[in-house]
Design goal:
This protein is mainly β and 548 residues long. It has 4 domains: 205 residues, Sandwich (Jelly Rolls); 67 residues, Sandwich (Immunoglobulin-like), CATH 2.60.40.10; 79 residues, Immunoglobulin-like (Sandwich); 82 residues, Ubiquitin-like (UB roll). 0% of the residues lie in helices and 60% in strands. Strands 1, 3, 4, 6, 11, 12, 13 and 15 form an 8-stranded antiparallel beta sheet that branches. A 7-stranded antiparallel beta sheet has the order 2-5-14-7-8-9-10, with no helix packed on it. Strands 24, 25, 28, 31 and 48 form a 5-stranded mixed beta sheet that branches. It starts with a strand and ends in a 14-residue tail after the last strand.
Length: 548
């Protein structure tokens, strides 16, 4: 068996793929440790909720080095909830010019689930081949899917396995004569009620022979800590890894000695990790005679809020209770950019000191960003809240073969890019793109975009350039910003402040800038009170056009 492609997310990004894209308001796709079945990273796709003509999706594409007449692709997929009615593409074998096959999960309006292969021949004629109905996937379980395609207009074949069980096998069909040029791992909700939740993908393999599943090699150790019935943040170390409870570790199968330390007390336990399973242990710390407590609450205009609190090395979110040996400790808190002055609190053995923090709630306005076909925005389309009087800067980013036309802001046309909006009310903003006309013979289009924070030379615009010529672009950051990186056709292309592009096709180059780090500003003047020590006892209170 010759491996053509494997995984693609273990670098913590999408660099192992030929391309990655999302479509739909609120759709996100990340290389995430939470999504890993094996190794460190998998793919997490969330927000598949928009009801649009071509669905919403997150796609990772790999271009085969050589077009092939047949291909096997294996993918592990995990769902977080029951799917609504509709079709979800998961694996795609694509051919340049037509003839695309999808391995899908379908839920009919009747509630029945079926695995299905959607076959499109070279002329775009679609045929569906479904397996037997079943009760539906189990949320949280990894499913091993494998798709086989043999390309032929007369004797084509498609086969699908789920957890090594063949669920579909169709032979002697028209799968088209155009060879396979790409494989895709995707979560693409193509029709029906778009309520998919979050989908995890991992362990993708492309090959010239049947691949099959592989056993997990690691297990999970979940560690918690408590004292007097309340959760506490204890420092934990096991197998060379460390963290603060509650915490989970991914470990090779075996038996480990786990150490936890809290308030000067250290406990140890032995835990056995089983491959593919989660082992949970808890450390119960007894209340020492010299311990006292600090309970911190936070309010904004009389409403209980979740503020971030630091108490001499311990952190938490209000309402929160800390345990300390007898002594004096500093309490600091932050909420929505407001940081209150540090407050000293005296801890008395067996007693609880209560600290009530009061923040002033800022006035906010919402900005809803959308875009037409042909590009996206930075920040990506979605809803964002801004403090009143602050400025929102939005940049339009065009896809290849398109150009930015204008913004539509509450019925008013704006043509500058980026556009700056002073947030004195709620706004809706839509980026409008239009397709570029075909370039003259031997010409190509180069589109240059500068994200807020700097300029480029040549300046941002769309230029007509000689075919196969080279263009060098230089980025210069504004004061308070620094150059971050280049994106060439939405793919990372370097961090030097200049880039040279060979114009063998239409290209879009984006210069990314980011603000330099400045120290946080402490805003004084907010009242902070410490209620006198109360004797509470020993208890603790604790994106893009559619591509198929």
């Amino acid at each position: 068996m010759a491996i053509i492609f494997t995984d693609g997310w273990e670098s913590g990004n999408f660099n192992g793929w030929s391309g990655a894209e999302v479509s739909g308001v609120g759709v996100t796709m990340t290389a995430d440790a939470v999504a890993a079945r094996r190794g460190i990273y998998g793919c997490k796709i969330s927000g598949l909720t928009e009801n649009v003509a071509y669905g919403n999706y997150g796609i990772c594409r790999f271009d085969l080095p050589t077009p092939r007449s047949f291909l096997y692709t294996r993918l592990y997929v995990k769902f977080t909830q029951e799917l609504s009615a509709g079709m979800l593409y998961l694996i795609q074998h694509g051919a340049l010019g037509g003839g695309t096959n999808h391995a899908c999960l379908v839920r009919e309006a009747t509630g029945e689930y079926k695995w299905l292969i959607e076959v499109s021949d070279d002329l775009g004629t679609i045929s569906d081949y479904a397996g037997a109905a079943f009760n539906g996937p189990i949320a949280g379980k990894w499913y091993c899917l494998e798709l086989y395609t043999y390309k032929s207009a007369t004797v084509g074949q498609v086969t699908m396995w789920v957890d090594e069980v063949q669920v579909i096998n169709q032979t002697g069909i028209n799968t088209g004569d155009l060879p396979i040029t790409e494989l895709r791992a995707e979560a693409w909700h193509i029709w029906g009620n778009p309520n998919v939740g979050t989908v995890y993908l991992d362990d993708v393999v492309g090959s010239d022979a049947y691949i099959g599943s592989e056993a997990p090699i690691t297990g999970v150790l979940s560690v918690t800590a408590s004292m007097a019935g309340s959760s506490v943040g204890a420092g934990v170390s096991v197998g060379g890894q460390a963290g603060t409870t509650p915490v989970s570790f991914s470990l090779a199968a075996g038996t480990y000695t786990v150490t936890a330390t809290y308030a000067g007390t250290t406990l140890t336990q032995s835990a056995t990790v089983v491959a593919g399973q989660t082992t949970t242990i808890n450390f119960d710390f007894s209340v020492a005679p010299n311990l006292g407590f600090i309970t911190v609450n936070a309010y904004s205009d009389g409403t209980v809020i979740a503020a971030n609190v630091t108490a001499d090395g311990q952190t938490g979110t209000t309402p929160v209770t800390f345990s300390f040996p007898v002594g004096t400790y500093n309490i600091t808190a932050t909420y929505q950019g407001q940081t209150l002055p540090a407050q000293q609190v005296v801890v008395v053995a067996g007693q609880t000191s209560i600290v009530n923090l009061h923040f002033v709630a800022p006035v906010t306005h919402s900005l809803i960003i959308t875009s037409s076909i042909g590009g996206t925005t930075n920040p990506v389309p979605g809803r964002y809240d801004y403090n009143e009087g602050s400025s929102a800067v939005i940049t339009a980013i065009v896809n290849a073969d398109y150009r930015f036309s204008y913004w539509m802001l509450e019925g008013t046309t704006r043509t500058e890019n980026p556009v700056t909006i002073v947030m004195d009310m709620d706004y809706s903003l839509r980026a409008i793109f239009e397709a570029l006309p075909p370039p003259p013979p031997q010409k190509r289009y180069l589109t240059i975009v500068a994200i807020n924070g700097g300029q480029t030379d040549p300046t941002p615009n769309t230029y007509e350039v000689d075919l196969n010529s080279t263009v060098t672009i230089t980025a210069t950051p504004n004061s308070g910003y620094k150059f971050k990186e280049w994106l060439l056709d939405n793919v990372q292309a370097g961090t030097q402040p200049f880039i040279t592009v060979t114009m063998d096709a239409n290209h879009t180059v984006v210069a990314m800038f980011e603000e330099t780090v400045t120290p946080p500003v402490v805003q004084a003047g907010f009242p902070l009170w410490v209620i006198p020590v109360a004797l509470i006892g020993i208890g603790a209170v604790y994106v893009v056009s559619k591509k198929k």
